[in-house]
Design goal:
mainly alpha; 2 helices; 32% helix; flat
Length: 60
């Protein structure tokens, strides 16, 4: 299990995390170069990421 740690960034999860409310973030497409000219997604990862999100939603 990973240790909790503070991280910067512009996610709305920062607001809830500051109040001690757990937040899930980073459930979008896998890729590299976030917000940079070389930003891209890995197309072959889309089915796996979609399945992960679907299983997460169905478990709620």
């Amino acid at each position: 299990m990973r240790k909790e740690e503070a991280a910067g960034g512009g996610s709305d999860g920062n607001f809830t995390a500051a109040m001690g409310i757990p937040a899930l973030d980073g459930l979008g497409a896998a890729g590299e170069g976030i917000h940079a000219r070389n930003e891209h997604i890995i197309i072959d990862e889309i089915p796996d990421r979609t399945a992960l999100l679907c299983k997460l939603i169905c478990s709620l």
